[in-house]
Amino acid sequence: xxxxxxxxxxxxxxxxxxxxxxxxxxxxxxxxxxxxxxxxxxxxxxxxxxxxxxxxxxxxxxxxxxxxxxxxxxxxxxxxxxxxxxxxxxxxxxxxxxxxxxxxxxxxxxxxxxxxxxxxxxxxxxxxxxxxxxxxxxxxxxxxxxxxxxxxxxxxxxxxxxxxxxxxxxxxxxxxxxxxxxxxxxxxxxxxxxxxxxxxxxxxxxxxxxxxxxxxxxxxxxxxxxxxxxxxxxxxxxxxxxxxxxxxxxxxxxxxxxxxxxxxxxxxxxxxxxxxxxxxxxxxxxxxxxxxxxxxxxxxxxxxxxxxxxxxxxxxxxxxxxxxxxxxxxxxxxxxxxxxxxxxxxxxxxxxxxxxxxxxxxxxxxxxxxxxxxxxxxxxxxxxxxxxxxxxxxxxxxxxxxxxxxxxxxxxxxxxxxxxxxxxxxxxxxxxxxxxxxxxxxxxxxxxxxxxxxxxxxxxxxxxxxxxxxxxxxxxxxxxxxxxxxxxxxxxxxxxxxxxxxxxxxxxxxxxxxxxxxxxxxxxxxxxxxxxxxxxxxxxxxxxxxxxxxxxxxxxxxxxxxxxxxxxxxxxxxxxxxxxxxxxxxxxxxxxxxxxxxxxxxxxxxxxxxxxxxxxxxxxxxxxxxxxxxxxxxxxxxxxxxxxxxxxxxxxxxxxxxxxxxxxxxxxxxxxxxxxxxxxxxxxxxxxxxxxxxxxxxxxxxxxxxxxxxxxxxxxxxxxxxxxxxxxxxxxxxxxxxxxxxxxxxxxxxxxxxxxxxxxxxxxxxxxxxxxxxxxxxxxxxxxxxxxxxxxxxxxxxxxxxxxxxxxxxxxxxxxxxxxxxxxxxxxxxxxxxxxxxxxxxxxxxxxxxxxxxxxxxxxxxxxxxxxxxxxxxxxxxxxxxxxxxxxxxxxxxxxxxxxxxxxxxxxxxxxxxxxxxxxxxxxxxxxxxxxxxxxxxxxxxxxxxxxxxxxxxxxxxxxxxxxxxxxxxxxxxxxxxxxxxxxxxxxxxxxxxxxxxxxxxxxxxxxxxxxxxxxxxxxxxxxxxxxxxxxxxxxxxxxxxxxxxxxxxxxxxxxxxxxxxxxxxxxxxxxxxxxxxxxxxxxxxxxxxxxxxxxxxxxxxxxxxxxxxxxxxxxxxxxxxxxxxxxxxxxxxxxxxxxxxxxxxxxxxxxxxxxxxxxxxxxxxxxxxxxxxxxxxxxxxxxxxxxxxxxxxxxxxxxxxxxxxxxxxxxxxxxxxxxxxxxxxxxxxxxxxxxxxxxxxxxxxxxxxxxxxxxxxxxxxxxxxxxxxxxxxxxxxxxxxxxxxxxxxxxxxxxxxxxxxxxxxxxxxxxxxxxxxxxxxxxxxxxxxxxxxxxxxxxxxxxxxxxxxxxxxxxxxxxxxxxxxxxxxxxxxxxxxxxxxxxxxxxxxxxxxxxxxxxxxxxxxxxxxxxxxxxxxxxxxxxxxxxxxxxxxxxxxxxxxxxxxxxxxxxxxxxxxxxxxxxxxxxxxxxxxxxxxxxxxxxxxxxxxxxxxxxxxxxxxxxxxxxxxxxxxxxxxxxxxxxxxxxxxxxxxxxxxxxxxxxxxxxxxxxxxxxxxxxxxxxxxxxxxxxxxxxxxxxxxxxxxxxxxxxxxxxxxxxxxxxxxxxxxxxxxxxxxxxxxxxxxxxxxxxxxxxxxxxxxxxxxxxxxxxxxxxxxxxxxxxxxxxxxxxxxxxxxxxxxxxxxxxxxxxxxxxxxxxxxxxxxxxxxxxxxxxxxxxxxxxxxxxxxxxxxxxxxxxxxxxxxxxxxxxxxxxxxxxxxxxxxxxxxxxxxxxxxxxxxxxxxxxxxxxxxxxxxxxxxxxxxxxxxxxxxxxxxxxxxxxxxxxxxxxxxxxxxxxxxxxxxxxxxxxxxxxxxxxxxxxxxxxxxxxxxxxxxxxxxxxxxxxxxxxxxxxxxxxxxxxxxxxxxxxxxxxxxxxxxxxxxxxxxxxxxxx
Length: 1936
Fold this sequence. Notes:
This protein is mainly beta. About 10% of the residues lie in helices and about 35% in strands. A hairpin with a 6-residue loop joins strand 100 and strand 101. Helix 6 packs antiparallel against helix 8 and helix 18 runs antiparallel to helix 19. The chain is globular.
């Protein structure tokens, strides 16, 4: 009994855990797995703990969950508090800034969020302090004179801004130090005539309210001067901010600082004084002497931008920058860094400074920026206005008003991956100051985060009885002593497992065979994500489904039943609990005429068409009046169609007879009809009931009808006389008119009674049209009606083409074939209002209506013999169509025999008049049926309509005569009393022979507002070359000019040979107001028309295009529903489902194709209509020749349509097995029971192979074993993309396997086969699986760009092993001492943009060593740190005026914990060249397209990739050296932390050493030592260039020239240099010196892009290269990679950067080269190899299959070439196979030739395609460089080449043997983007034994030669059996 009690309690515990497991993913209380009560309370808000001893659920959970699970004890939970401590109401009479409340105390639980309401008051005229800070350099002399003249007026102006004002004045120039100031004594005394000595800053007039004193003091001021253009204004601003007492700032006033200058500014570390190490960092203190002058200008540096932002905000000072246009752009960028500031454009003499100040002051008063200062790190805030709209702290507030705002304060639950309660107190508590930036008053918020400790933990019950005296009872939970486990500490860890406890009722296997039985009878399921329950008896995938989704995707499968989400119910969670979908328009449920069942109305039967909410649907009828007419007649007058009682009783409403009707505007509809029984008119109103009483409609009928007056008897004789007279007149007319209808009408018109008749006819007589000017293939010609408009007339018309041809015309004699199938365009007016959605063919409304039209018309026109289905259905709205013009017109095309035209017209007309075509509702009186030469139709004049357009086709064809005539004729009036007046209208079309044809490329374009510009191409087809013009113009539809787009109008002139021009139309963003309106977010359209073609041109196919502005929705995702599917050979069809998710409202298309099928290759499209989520691919195996046999077919989805994509399951495997399923039940389960073995005894493939990643390096496989007793299984697995033959094989004995030691976040493919005594069985289908993500590796090499001793830029490379997608980086920098112990606070900076791998850090401590650590983060978490240590003071600083590196984060090291507030991105260069009065942006030598030229910082590659490894001693990379040879100087701003100047690593049993051996070669040059500059920078380069070894670079930049030099320290070598080495060094030195000094030659085009236009057509694009002069054109060369004739295309227009190449061969690789030309000549080429892969005709391999898909691929060259010297005249060459060859590899071709000519070219052929191939090359010559090329020979020809240059060079001239030391030099050629050459020698020590048995010894040697310090690290290997060594030197030679 005790055992079952134990099992029951354990089972209930597991049940509770599993019940809560479905929401553990979103329940952080449950997911935290808290071990005790306190840990639970500290997880976050909402967490509660149950201390009940008998509680079996999860004790730490959300409060409502614990309550629902039956916790009987007092649930432990915590509450926060909030208290307003000081709340003095705002007094608007006090003219000073105020806030309310003033102080709040708040406590938070982790993760809690609170809303604080507060108010601020800005007075109308509060106290104002205005301080003017003016530039006193000589260029501002005229400005100073103007300011003096203003004098008192300036103070008077300030008084208009505020009655309580003060005004002050200060002046500044620059630091009195070189090079800013001329230090000659005479210039120090008087830099300019009548000027004061130079100074940095002086406070001239303290803030005062005495206007006279201010004016008088200003008159004594004189100008001063300095040298360079940038001024020291930042020094002045800082002193004016921090010297509050000296300046005179008042506490309760608004502080404005007007900064007036016409120059740029100096900022921290941009001066030469910093480079010389003179000045230290600015200490941010006040240093004004007794005269008000700044006294520390020559002792410390300028402040930085973040420092100014921080200090001005701290002292509540708002800057106003009054600057001239010379420097406006600099200060405009600077403005962005300030929370609130203004800028104004100052005139040259400052005469507009008063207007500028007034405008700026008003702007400041109207804006407010609210910030939270001193905020603890654990809190985040957001500000909102009174409406709740988030404002990011910026608000608009009128002075004198009280502003109401809200602050949402959020206490973070976690910071990074650490709970906030586990962090220090400073992070969790603090006093925030919330205030507007202009205010001194602030709301003080005391914040703290509660981290409670549970009281029950303080009093545990030791050795409690509930815990079997083997544990303590703490807060209701047992904490077991050692050796005991279980909820009650009753299971010993040492006791054997009793598996019978794990067998449930009616079970045979422990844990249902799905898990492992452990202690205490606990089952641990093998796959907990699938199986659950006490005995693993429940399958989470076997609950009920709805629409194919488990639990309708609205719940979870728990214990075999659906646990529905909130708001859903039903066995499959298919029913919403709310009745929202059943609410009618009155708010009732189902209109009182039905029941709401499972979220849908079940309505009562009704003759009326009703909506889904049981309301009358008059849209499905002809309208409200027509729908109610019969019921009103029968109930009120017992007349009409329903006058029979049984019919009348079916009406769904009852009428009310009234004496007076309501006004029309107060009801739904006012209706009037004529009763045919008495010819009287009755009137009634229809309205919807106001309540939900169940009445469908409220109908009130006017009791009295309107009847015509009664006839008078005395009129009878008169009428008889008139009738006789009329008969006599008619007899006369008939006598004289002889049956002439026209004459009869004329006669009748003479009669008084006939003169009031209606006439219809065309308004125009004739149209003369030019075909080139036509914008449509139809013409709208007006038809008019005269006479009384009271009535309806339907008029039939027809049009005939080519009426100008005589009956004997040759074309008229050709009779068409009556059996020929032609297209019949048909137009009908639907009984449906036109909406904007119908104009967009892809919209859901249009798609649904198009389907309804097609279904009905196809059924309707079945009556026509030979008719096909309708196509090309579209919808439009026709103007001037009377009362029906808002109804939709449907245009479609019916294909049928030509002879059926009369039948189609008759059938269409008959059914249009009835209002129905099949079930499609149409409007009577309108239709058009046309052929290719005639058309017929009808239009309708409704009552009171006098004009209607007839939409007639023009039949424009290419074979038309030069002048043709059409005739439109009115035939009759079948309905109505109107007579036909003007019957005919003639249309003449003149066809011109044009020299050019203008057209849009497409009839419609779609752009997103995010595109910014809609580029509309206009195409010109050239017939006779020459100049031509055309006019274009945009016109509004639903898009409006100046609101959605900017209208365009103009003329385009095409010169000879020009075929296309682009018209850019600017698209506008929605305004904030419009963005809130739903209708403004819909699609907007405008049109662009072409007109007025000139100079012999005409308009072509698309003279108009419609542009749709839309925000593109997210794309639909389509993929196969299953990864594998099984069918049998007896199945009639194979049905493969494809599912779609996301963006279901629009149509989507994707193509599919089969692969690896034995009997067929199929392909086709799959089209999803709007709303469709699943479609099937159906394959009929019997439709293809050959017997149906077992096979495996792969299906693939590809080429998705626009706004669609293919999902993860892009392929599926169809496994066709032998035989038929035994039962239908087996078929439903989706598998076939195979035979035990195949006829040969070979096993079938295992079934249901499933792969699941269990970790970043593990995949678990399981499968169903095949019948036939397999002896074991072989598991094959390989990385996706690798060939299957390279797969690894794992032998297992059970039907499951665990793959280990895999790569994280990597795609693997797997197969499994069984084996027996016969051999291996059949393989399963390939099953893919991706391993899980893992934390990333450490970032790549760290590098530092030293700006100054206190400013550096740190950058790093992406981790080599990202193990997922990198999402962020974190940089930590800490001041350390000599033993690397922290001596200060570590600062953290998180960079959320993973593309920005640089950080600029300012305000570091001078001469302080810092440790920098960088780590990366992906979705798993943070990776390990990469660290480096550096002291910036020991590094060389950057040259003068190098700009701030753009587009990188900048952080202020002194900004405290609020570094987020100062994390900025620098997008603009802020500097001025020396001696320039006008500031300028950095020159072209540094900037390229607004970005930093990375080739300047790091030649050869991207700066973020060109960095070395870290954790190494620091090296000084720039200095001045003097040696015997002369004086050398190096300058660099980049320091790499590397492992020294030599690298040593093991290669093939030897020592691989890389060292730099480049040297200066001045003796062969024509210049002296003073022209030589040597520098070394160690570091790896970009990944584009493997194994570059050491690489040196230095540069010095000025405004006039660029100088670059490369060299390396001389090193001693005991060998003789060969002549070719000397020549190479000389050439290298010359190239490096002259490469940057030859301006004007274009660089290599920076990228090459290929786009396939078809299987034989290709578009080649490139990016314009950098060039100092204008590009004149380009040249494109291409030829087959396997050889053949080269072709050349010259592009003479430099604006064109692409060409289209036709007639390429499919599946053949081509080599393309592109180069640019300037006046100085051609630049270097950019090469690319590309192949267009497509299916071809097997009989003609060069002809692609029509309609087949095509893709691009790029073949690769063989792997790196490796040379091994065998003797002085032979070597071994080896290489790896190409990663992606162009075809199957047959072998290789190797060529060898001498580098400098001489000797024959030797060729070698190597067969095979092994992973690594080698070749021995004999008969070489010692000390002669050779060039080797290796090229793969494939089934498609030859692939690209791999080149290598090698020299076997002897050191001592002796023969090379096994025991002698020799040297071999290897050179490899790489193309470098910066045209730079360098050389690296690599030494290999060859050792016999590839293993080291005795260890190794590391020594470090310092060598000083000629003043150059180098460091060599040597690794020596000791080996007992070593008999000798061979030294091989590897040289890598890079040349331009």
